[in-house]
Amino acid sequence: MELDHILLEEADGIATITMNRPEKLNAMAFDSLDQFVALLDRVRDEATARVLVVTGKGRAFCSGADLSGDDHDPDARFPDRGIGLERGHNLVFERMRYMPIPIICAVNGGAAGGGCGYALAGDIVVAARSAYFLQPFANIGLVPDVGATWLLPRLIGKARATAMMMLGERIPAETAAEWGLIWQVVDDDALMDTAYALARKLAAGPTVAYDLMRQGIADAMEMSLSQTLGMERRNQRIAGRTADHREGVAAFLEKRPPKFEGR
To answer: Contact 162/101 with Cβ under 8 angstroms?
Structure first.
């Protein structure tokens, strides 16, 4: 597979995946999605990175599905618009959801359609001031996908999520931050410096605990309080048996910064 639509770099425990079709606003065709899935699998399976940064090249983060390609045949009488979800978009979203390391999404521009889902799949989402978030599906007679129906009401509430989906209007980055949709907005030229400062902090942190946190947060959204308390008890047992926990306690008692190894 020639990896050109999606790029992967890794250094100092930080993996970076960059969507690389700037002339298409990083729209996703089937081959792009195949590459994205393969690289996410590689980051997960090689287990050398302790944090993943996801961003886009050019003036967009990701504009969603590539409606101009053969993947979405406008001449087909009854096109199945769900094929792209089943074959690619949902696979990307699920792999991001279950990645065992923290994900930082650096949203450099428009995050529209499925690209909005990718952006919001990050644990920490930092957006450039010029970025925006868009659910454009109603404008073309479709419904939200790539996790939007699940994510948006949980992040910003039913009222805002419904309006965002039905009106199909851009949500500026600053509004997204005010709503609690994302973590932070920064000036455009500070975006990647901010994202990598966060990435370096996470890459030096307790990786197993981070994995338990990210999975626990997602699971707790579907659990009762009693179930959540039980999950926290199980996860605390796992975290408490790690080398990083032992190091953290030792560093606390010795009044020095901890040196976590990610295990």
So the answer is: no
Name 209's Cβ contacts closer than 8 Å, sequence gap at least 6.
239, 242, 244, 245
> What pLDDT does 69 receive?
62
Q: Which domains, from first to last, does the chain contain? A: 6-203 (3.90.226.10), 207-253 (1.10.12)
Element (H, E) at 18: strand 14-19
Q: Is 0.85 surpassed by the pTM of this model?
A: yes
Distance CA 78, CA 66 (A): 18
Q: What is the DSSP string of 31-66?
A: HHHHHHHHHHHHHHHH---SEEEEEESTTEEE--B-
Instruction: Supply the mean pLDDT for the chain.
Output: 93
pLDDT computed for residue 132 by the predictor? 98
The mean pLDDT value for 55-83 works out to 76
Contact predicate 38/91, CB 8 Å: no
Give the model's pLDDT for residue 152: 96
**What integer is the mean pLDDT of 59-74?**
76
Length in residues, the chain: 263
| Tokens 């729209």 sit on residue | 27
